[in-house]
Amino acid sequence: MRRACPICIRVAPPALRGFTLVSQLPLTLSCPGHRCRLEPAFGAPGAYFAWEKSGTVSAAVPSSVVPMDRLTHAALRTGVVTLPRRAVHAGVWFRLLRTLIDEISIPPSKLTRRAQRAVVRIWDAAGHRPRAGVSVAWRTYESLPWPRQQAALEAAAAALHLIETREITTEGSLASLLTIEPHKPVPDGRKPETVRAAELVHALEDALAAARADPLEAHRLLALLAPNPGSKRFGSVREDLIMLGIPVHNLPPDPEDSDDRRP
Ligand SMILES: [Zn+2]
Q1: Whole-prediction pTM value?
Q2: Distances from the Cα of 47 to the Cαs of 23, 53, 71, in angstroms?
Q3: 48 C-alpha to center of ligand 1: Å?
Q4: Are residues 170 and 97 in the same domain?
Q5: Same structural domain for residues 87 and 34?
Q6: Mean pLDDT of residues grouped by 10 in the chain (263 residues)?
Q7: Centroid of ligand 1 to alpha carbon of 72 (angstroms)
Q8: For residue 10, how far is its CA from the centre of ligand 1 (angstroms)?
Q9: Residue 84 carries which DSSP code?
Q10: Is residue 27 located within the same domain as residue 111?
Q11: Maximum Cα–Cα distance across the chain
């Protein structure tokens, strides 16, 4: 397989025209730099170059192909692919992509009704007949002529888009990687004791606000903090609550305070 990007070839000096590794693998459809379709060509690096069809110009790939090819390029370039759920090793991505191509090529008679509907929808979204028009029971992807491989890749790209947008559901151990993880509340990074202290402060502020507004709440708060009227602690806590803005008339009198003693 020899393919090249028309824009890359146009801007490269003749001596540097060649074929990138990714353009020779039947797993991508587009140039990673220009996002246009890789077109069939002949040549030898630095010696000669010719398009298979004269007058070849750049053409766009379907929009769903661009993100799929971006992942394959990342796999080849860095060994890591960032999927919606998490980053995975390149090997996981290639296994997932190859499995997807196989699954959308399964004869309808081998599928459940639900799976049939999903597969028909995928090929329809890609603009191709189901299984790229293959009518025999089974043919491996690698044995298909390139136009049908190309259609299968476009269908795989459409499937990835439909899975990510949850328009079709998937099964299997790798399928969950293609969807965004459902929201789960996570700790905000604070230590548990810091969280508890903050909760305690909030609870105390609520209790003080209630005591400022309601004598019954003020009595309850003082009884909670200092249960023995007449004790030294009772008088001390009562003074603290007054300092914190609780009106004196909301609190019970201090039996030990002569000013509060009633005649
Ligand atoms: Zn290019």
Answers
A1: 0.66
A2: 18, 19, 32
A3: 18
A4: yes
A5: no
A6: 90 85 88 92 86 93 95 93 91 93 90 91 94 81 90 96 88 76 68 79 86 90 90 91 92 78 46
A7: 15
A8: 9
A9: S
A10: no
A11: 116
